[in-house]
Structures are given as structure tokens and as C-alpha cells.
Amino acid sequence: MRHDNDTALDIYLTGLRNAHALENEALSIMQPQISRLEHYPELLARLKEHVRETEAQIKRLETILKDFDEGSSTIKDVGGRIMGGLAALGHSMAGDEVLKNTLANYAFENYEIAAYKSLIALADATKQSAHVKLLEQSLGEEIAMASFIENHIEDTTLKFLRLSEAGRTAKV
Among candidates 133, 148, 157, 126, which has minimal Cα distance to 48? Predict the structure, then answer.
């Protein structure tokens, strides 16, 4: 199923592998947060839902890669998991962990949105129209998550402030 323009297809396949690694990194960032969000039940519920969405996004990317008899990049996947784990660990030591995570998650979601928009453009350019629907589904999930975070930044910040002022553990 190679496209006439091997350069375009190579760029698309690299983008797919990068997105796969990015989604694995996202899991390694979100999963540690879930175990630490006892004071933020709405955020906790949404993060759990997004972990399930992210797992489905990884499967969609694997399905697309299989169309080309390609796999993901183990090096990129492992590297992404390590980087995500280090980021989560670094935030967990901060007194304002939930705020740092909220801001980082918002930035990360927007990065993923850009990645999926790029992949959709590449799928169109390489005439891989069957992939567009799968990529658009993932894009929609990322947009919804970014919107959720954006709509809750103020509430999360103020709840953190109230907990801190009350002398309660406000990290998570």
C-alpha cells in the first residue's frame, strides 16, 4: 500500500510512530496522577476516562501502522514512557503538584491536538482516507480533554488555594 510519493509516506509513518510514542508518554504521565488525586474527584474521573481514551488511541495508531506492515518504534515508546515518568515524578515532589500537573496536562493535550492535525493532513496527502476517521476520533478526544482542563483551571487553582489555606494537604 505504498504511496507514489515515498517521501510523503515516510513522513506520515514517522508521524504515526511519534504519535504512538507520545500516547505512551501520556499514559506514563496520567497514571501516577490518578493514584494521587483524592481531593479532586472531578479531575480524577476525567483523567481515568482519558486514560481509557488514550489506550484506545494507541490501538488505533497500531491499526494504522499494521496497514503498512509497520510497528511502533520501541525506542521512541520506551523513551516517551521514561520521560513521562520523570515528569510525573518531578511534579509529585512539588508542593503545588496539582497545579503543575494541570498546566502541564493542558500543554501536553494541545501538543497532541497539533500532532493529530498534522497526521490528518499527511493522511490526506498520502491518500490514506481510511485512516482519517480514526485520527479524527483521537483528535476529538484530545480536544475534549484540553477543553475540560481549560474549563477547570480556575476551579482547580482555587480549590488548591482553599485546601492550602485550611492547612490541609493540597498537593493532591
Answer: 148
